[in-house]
């Protein structure tokens, strides 16, 4: 996606991270329902992010629609002896436009490091995949008053060595670890505080031109009943949805709430 206008002038971005869920049949059914609803919601950029093995099946459903395809991870190398890994060219070849990088589940359960995430972000950009770069603090970090230092550190390390133009082409997802899959959403004020901090950091480092363009998603127990109040916050440009993206009704409703709140903001 070309980043030439401010994030508020852009359509709300609502991405469904299906994690390690769904069979091929379930995935096709869900994708069809989202495509049908998506055709009536051209105001939003909708992204479906299935497990690798379901990318082909979902691609067939979304291919002639505005709904975009994304992947949940990738290696930074183009090819090689990396059993079990998937490369950026594989994802581009599979029709992906987006790739989630540095998700907290990858960091916590599979040992991903800031340095590795940085290599993946650079590799994604080389292959014209839009990274959805995830960051966020744990509960002890929040309770210890270390939210901003943690998020700031992840941001700086993840973007290390990138020039402003490239940073403007990245989607950032703030996902507080304590809010993921727990039903405990950050309050709109808590989310806004961190989103504004991220935007300010980008402004300090990359200037006034890049910072308003940066698309910053919120993720962590986003549901139809909290989507509107979250999205109304100034610096929230979209959502990365986990559990609620596995049901068409809730995912579509979240998208509608985002569109409604976006209209109020602009
Ligand atoms: P939940 O919406 O299930 O909390 O998951 C959020 C998430 O991790 C999206 O990437």
Comma- or semicolon-separated keywords:
single chain, 11 helices, binds 1,3-dihydroxyacetonephosphate, globular, 8-stranded parallel beta barrel, 8 strands, alpha/beta, 266 residues
Describe the structure.
The protein is α/β, with parallel strands linked by helices and about 270 residues long. The protein has helices at about 25-40, 55-60, 90-95, 105-110, 115-125, 140-145, 145-160, 165, 190-205, 225-230, 250-265, and strands spanning about 15, 45-50, 70, 100, 130-135, 170-175, 215-220, 240. The protein has an eight-stranded parallel β-barrel, surrounded by six helices. The longest helix has 19 residues, at about 190-205. The site of 1,3-dihydroxyacetonephosphate has 14 residues, from strand 8.
Q: Low-confidence parts lasting 5 or more residues at pLDDT below 50? A: none
What is the structural class?
alpha/beta
Order of helices and strands: EHEHEHEHHEHHHEHEHEH
- Residues in β-strands, percent: 5-15%
Strand order of the largest sheet: 1-2-3-4-5-6-7-8
How does the overall form come out from the CA principal axes? globular
Largest sheet: 8 strands, parallel, barrel
Offer a quick outline of the entry.
This protein has 266 residues and is α/β, with parallel strands linked by helices. It has helices at residues 24-39, 55-62, 88-93, 104-110, 114-126, 139-143, 147-159, 164-167, 188-206, 224-231, 248-265; strands at 13-17, 45-49, 68-71, 98-101, 130-135, 171-174, 215-219, 238-241. An eight-stranded parallel β-barrel has the order 1-2-3-4-5-6-7-8, surrounded by six helices.
């Amino acid at each position: 996606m070309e980043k030439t206008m401010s994030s508020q002038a852009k359509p709300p971005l609502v991405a469904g991270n299906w994690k390690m869920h769904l069979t091929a049949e379930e995935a096709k059914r869900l994708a069809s329902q989202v495509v049908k609803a998506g055709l009536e919601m051209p105001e939003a950029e909708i992204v479906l992010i299935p497990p690798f093995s379901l990318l082909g099946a979902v691609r067939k459903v979304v291919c002639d629609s505005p709904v975009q395809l994304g992947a949940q991870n990738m290696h930074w190398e183009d090819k090689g002896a990396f059993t079990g890994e998937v490369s950026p060219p594989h994802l581009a070849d599979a029709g992906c436009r987006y790739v989630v990088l540095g998700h907290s589940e990858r960091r916590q359960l599979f040992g991903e490091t800031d340095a590795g995430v940085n290599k993946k972000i650079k590799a994604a950009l080389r292959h014209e995949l839009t990274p959805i770069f995830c960051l966020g603090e744990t509960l002890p970090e929040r309770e210890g008053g270390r939210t901003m230092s943690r998020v700031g550190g992840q941001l700086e390390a993840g973007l290390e060595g990138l020039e402003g133009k490239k940073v403007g082409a990245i989607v950032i997802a703030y996902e507080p670890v304590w809010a993921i899959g727990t039903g405990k959403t950050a309050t709109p004020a808590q989310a806004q505080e961190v989103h504004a901090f991220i935007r300010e950091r980008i402004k300090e480092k990359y200037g006034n031109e890049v910072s308003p363009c940066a698309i910053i998603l919120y993720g962590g127990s986003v549901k139809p009943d909290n989507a509107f109040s979250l999205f109304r916050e100034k610096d929230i440009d979209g959502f990365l949805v986990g559990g609620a993206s596995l049901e068409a009704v809730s995912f579509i409703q979240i998208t509608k709430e985002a569109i409604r709140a976006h209209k109020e903001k602009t």
